[in-house]
Structures are given as C-alpha cells and as structure tokens.
Specification:
Layout (H helix, E strand, L loop, with lengths): L1 H5 L9 E4 L4 H12 L4 E5 L4 H10 L1 E6 L9
Parallel strand pairs: 1-2, 2-3
Length: 74
Amino acid sequence: MDALERNGVRPDSGPVVVTGATGGVGSVATALLSEMGFSVVAVSGKAEGETKEWMGRLGAKEVMARAELEGEHK
C-alpha cells in the first residue's frame, strides 16, 4: 500500500487487482485497500460460492477466478 501511495495511485485511479486474494496476505490487502477507498478486484483460484461471498464481505467489488486471466499453456 505504501508503494501505491508513493507512486501516486489513488482510489480514483481505477480498480486495484489483488492476486491470491483468499490467502492470508491477499485477504488482508483486500480489506485494507477497500477501507482506504479503492475498488478491489480479488483474483483467486477459489473464487466461487462461499469464498466469493467472503471476499465481497472483505470489500472486493469484483471476484475473478484465476483461470479467467490465464492464457493458453505452451
């Protein structure tokens, strides 16, 4: 979060993507960034059902499955 602020990223700059959002660090980042006013897009390999609802309660505006961002395997 310090790096975002130092580089001029503000809540009105647009959404912030948090990868690994269901993990310990990712879930804390989601909650803190949301509290700071950022629109958080949470990305996780477990982005469905109760986990998706939990991420929303932490403050994520959108929850995406990691598979949605993966390209074709080589």
